[in-house]
What does this fold into?
Amino acid sequence: MVQKSVGYTVKVPGFEGPLDLLVTLAHQGKVDLATIPLADVTQDFLARARDSLDLNEATEALWMLAALVEMKAKLLLPKAPPAEPLPEIGESDLPEKLEERLAEYRQFRDAAEALRALEDLQQRIFVRPPAGEPADLLLEGVTLDDLFRAFETVLTRARKNRAAEVEDEPVRVADRKAAILEALARAPQGVEFARLFGRRVSAVFIVVTFLALLELIKEHKVRAQQAGPLSPIMLAAVTA
Amino acid sequence: MSARQEGFAPPAPMAEGEEGTLPELAGGVESILLVAGGPVSADKLAEALGADRAAVTQAVRYLQQRTHVTGLLIQAVAGGYQLGTRPEHADAVRQFLQSQHSDALTRGALETLAIIAYRQPATRGDVEQVRGVRSDWHIERLLERQLIREMGRRPTVGRPMLFGTTELFLRYFGLNDLAELPPMGTRGVQTLLDAAR
It folds into this structure.
């Protein structure tokens, strides 16, 4: 069966292979992060994300990149002198222990592969959704790409207005969620996506509002609808 | 309901006595599985059909033989029986439903899930000890997809949260119970896949 997600691969001087392997090896100290140009890895990731975006994989890769940056930062910072030398006991059985742990990991990796095969098969079997429970109408006719494109448009508009004064006011997701719900409650027929953001607002405000919106959709409190490919995305409160 | 059903399409002529009731019972099982969508236990089927459990199991086996000539299949999943489309028609069904999106789990998430499934109840620490990397993100995603659930806390230092698999986990992988997990250390996948077919 075809492996569906291969994950991000890295190709920089000093390392070539899957990103998660790099994280694992760096974690185990088997790869010297100081010699790996993480900026290149990040650039590569960004270039690829621009090309095609699988949100699942991209988020995972982002998380791993962050872990790498954290590890490298720790590595580069000057360390306090070690309080006392590490106990020498048991050093002789270290390779043995490592081998043991690696074998254990391999077992689970194989088990994961077995689960992948089952997943592949089960995803080819469709079960009728129970009556009266529409499959997932929270995003009607709207793809993730559509939402992102709409988001980009709003963000670009904000960048053009950059000259507007910057207010150092904290914007919180919880507040924006409340504000969105309030706006939707006032408009039972729905609110157009772009109208959620107002005219002269900061990029932070837009990003936080967008996050708040995504959370509301995930929590089944807001429904997004789009009549056709280029028509505006309409948002409405879910009335349960 | 049964009167209407009988009047609608009379079943093929059948032999006298006990055997005659099998296709009829099977028809009832199939009807219930169709409207249920998800898995239905043999007990529930028996109750609805006024038959005993053994007869229901027999009827399911009868259906499983016959579904080879239809586009459907009956799987034993999560302690019940479930009617679904046969995998060989997946492309056509996907095309019809316009669902291109595959929600397959990432490799890291699958590894995390495997450790939790085989070791349950397991903590974040158990997972990370095997994988050698932090796995918070995967655990969050798996909780969100309801493939794992919180199962209390381990009574040790820090009282770490324990995780185990859910009923949805069984349905997601087409397993009847946890004993059907592919055996560790060996490649038992093919056996399982054959059994599923």
Summary: Chain B touches chain A through 54 residues (CB under 8 Å). The CA atoms of residues 90 and 96 of chain B lie 10 Å apart.
